[in-house]
Amino acid sequence: MTNASVTVIIAATRPDATRPDATRPDATRPGDRGRVVEQVGAIGPGLCVLVGVTHDDTEAHATKLADKIWHLRVMDDDDGVMNRSVADTTREVLVVSQFTLYGDTNGGRRPSWIAAARPEHAEPLVERVVARLRELGATVATGRFRTEMQVALVNDGPVTVLIEV
């Protein structure tokens, strides 16, 4: 038996004066031919968090995940060393629900989504992650649940982290 785990992938973004538009992760809803219908969430430098939920995940997992995201030291200090958390720096987080994190490719060329929680179970847990981050002091933008979106970000440096709680 495996432990239940809310899975998240975090990509850190930092300001870059030479690319002012490159530090704004955003979630947009595409229309015909890829044009943007509306922007549903955007942040400046901070963390872009893709959250996947599985069947056994609970509100306690979601709360623990938010706490871990908030305090995870993946942001640069003045010496360029990852010694700071988003709580210590920009306080900006973009949270996007991503059921495809639980895609299983062991059975062939087409992923199975069986391990991903149904929307009725997953949505309240993603909302709990968002609520807890806001309680901690984060400025949180979100994607839209059960909506096809385009998520754009510049993954700054070597910072892409998988967290399971």
Q: What report would you give on this structure?
A:
With 165 residues, the chain is an alpha+beta fold. It has a single domain (7-164), classed as D-tyrosyl-trna(Tyr) Deacylase, Chain: A (3-Layer(bba) Sandwich), CATH 3.50.80.10. The chain is built from two helices and ten strands, in the order E-E-E-E-H-E-E-E-H-E-E-E. It has helices at residues 59-71, 119-136; strands at 7-12, 26-30, 36-42, 47-52, 75-76, 82-84, 92-97, 139-142, 150-152, 160-164. The strands form three sheets. It has a five-stranded mixed beta sheet, with helices on one face. Helix 1 (59-71) packs across helix 2. The longest helix has 18 residues, at 119-136. The chain is globular and about 45 Å long. The relative contact order is 0.29. Mean pLDDT is 80; it is low at 1-7 and 14-24.
Percentage beta strand: 25-35%
- The best one-word shape is globular
Order of helices and strands: EEEEHEEEHEEE
Approximately how much helix is present in the residues? 10-25%
Q: Please report the distance between the alpha carbons of the first and last residues.
A: 15 Å
Low-confidence stretches: 1-7, 14-24
Tally of DSSP β-strands: 10
Biggest sheet strand line-up: 8-7-4-1-10
Total number of distinct structural domains: 1
Q: What's the story with the biggest beta sheet?
A: 5 strands, mixed
User: Class by helix and strand content?
Assistant: alpha+beta
What fold name stands as the CATH topology? D-tyrosyl-trna(Tyr) Deacylase, Chain: A
The level 1 CATH classification is: Alpha Beta
User: Helical region count?
Assistant: 2
**Gross CATH architecture:** 3-Layer(bba) Sandwich
Mean pLDDT: 80
CATH superfamily label? D-tyrosyl-tRNA(Tyr) deacylase
Q: Radius of gyration over alpha carbons?
A: 16 Å
